[in-house]
């Protein structure tokens, strides 16, 4: 995986995540959302959990698997406080707990973010990508990330990881979006973009 | 594995798809077991202890992928590898006892059939049985994550969680 190819994936993540954050901003009544420039890196599998958050800290994770012409995994991770803030700003008057209502709000946010991300990729590559229903877990960060890796059958010893962090000031939401393309899918995407 | 801290208690951190063994003193820790399973092995006679953190059950489907295989990633290859490592420190396979934790289903995954966590637990049990290593204690399944510590001086295993208390095995 040379840096040229990583750059292309990074640009893809940039456009996809940009699109997703526009949707999130619409949800939050037009609030401005800042994001870091996405990072595309080849990471040893073992080091993935500690890249996201302190491994033992409690976090909310929204997980969506996209399949179709290519397969990739999307994980949106928020601190508990941010997840609470997100829930209360979308459902004014709610307590922001991780009850049925809270969890379905997080799922819906996952749906909207992922759908707009995948749309952007589809438009660029003509590939069809269908998201699975979102899954939410509230638990230690390390357990969430390793479970997602196992679920995506992360069989390679090095994983290509696209990571972006986002921040909102008013609603105080800090989170990270992690995208893990399956290795064959990545080759396919790069092929279509002329870097096969 | 990573060496953490120093002084009184040597602490070794086992990452995902990783394993480590120590003798006589210190502690081995692995953080964030979700569907993964932590396998602690202990030889009380020689005070040799080891811990593995496996991600998946079986190595067979992945063997032809890219040649190199990280043995510590799979239940069926990690446990024999851990036993070898412990034998090199003076432990003996016939004296080993196991304590296992993890294999939970963190996300509901609206799917029928057996979860990755269950598959992992089953593969760990099967591999331990093949090696005639008895399971002395376990904290497996459920839907929450776990951190596992193995204390080398006595073979005690401590499981901690987020909001679900702690257990000594």
Briefly say what this structure is.
The complex is a heterodimer of chains A (196) and B (169). Chain A has 196 residues and is an alpha+beta fold.
Would you identify the regions of chain B where 5 or more consecutive residues have pLDDT less than 50? none
What portion of residues of chain B belong to β-strands?
Answer: 25-35%
Look up the CATH topology of chain A: Chemotaxis protein chec
| Count of separate DSSP helical elements of chain A | 6
Note the total helix count of chain B: 2
Label the CATH architecture of chain A.
Answer: 3-Layer(aba) Sandwich
- Strand fraction of chain A equals 25-35%
- Structural domain tally of chain A: 1
**Taking all residues together, what is the mean pLDDT of chain A?**
85
Helix-strand sequence of chain B: EEEEEEHEHEEEE
Q: How large, in whole angstroms, is the Cα Rg of chain B?
A: 15 Å
């Amino acid at each position: 995986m040379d840096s040229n190819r990583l750059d292309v994936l990074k640009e893809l993540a940039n456009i996809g995540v940009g699109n997703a954050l526009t949707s999130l901003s619409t949800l939050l009544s037009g609030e401005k959302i800042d994001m870091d420039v996405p990072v595309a890196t080849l990471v040893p599998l073992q080091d993935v959990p500690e890249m996201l958050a302190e491994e033992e800290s409690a976090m909310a994770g929204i997980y969506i698997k996209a399949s179709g012409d290519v397969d990739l995994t999307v994980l949106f991770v928020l601190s508990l406080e941010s997840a609470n803030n997100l829930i209360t700003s979308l459902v004014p008057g709610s307590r922001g707990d991780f009850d049925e209502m809270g969890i379905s709000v997080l799922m819906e946010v996952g749906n909207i973010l992922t759908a707009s991300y995948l749309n952007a990729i589809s438009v660029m590559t003509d590939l069809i990508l269908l998201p699975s229903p979102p899954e939410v877990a509230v638990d230690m960060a390390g357990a969430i990330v390793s479970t997602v890796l196992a679920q995506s059958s992360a069989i390679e010893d090095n994983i290509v990881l696209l990571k972006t962090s986002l921040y909102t000031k008013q609603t105080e939401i800090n989170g990270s979006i992690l995208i893990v393309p399956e290795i064959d899918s990545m080759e396919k995407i790069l092929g279509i973009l002329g870097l096969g | 594995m990573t060496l953490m801290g120093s002084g009184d208690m040597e602490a070794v951190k086992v990452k995902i798809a990783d394993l480590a063994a120590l003798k006589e003193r210190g502690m081995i820790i692995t953080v964030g077991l979700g569907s993964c399973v932590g396998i602690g092995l202990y030889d009380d006679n020689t005070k040799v202890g080891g811990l593995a953190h496996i991600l998946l059950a079986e190595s067979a489907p992945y063997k032809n992928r890219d040649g190199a295989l990280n043995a510590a990633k799979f239940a069926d290859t990690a446990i024999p590898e851990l036993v070898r490592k412990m034998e090199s420190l003076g432990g003996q396979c016939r004296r080993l006892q196991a304590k296992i934790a993890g294999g939970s289903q963190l996300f509901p995954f609206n799917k029928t059939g057996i979860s990755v966590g269950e598959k992992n637990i089953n593969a760990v049990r099967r591999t331990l049985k093949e090696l005639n290593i008895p399971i002395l204690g376990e904290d497996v399944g459920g839907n929450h994550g776990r951190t596992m510590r193995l204390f080398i001086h006595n073979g005690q295993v401590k499981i901690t969680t987020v909001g679900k208390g702690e257990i000594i095995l």
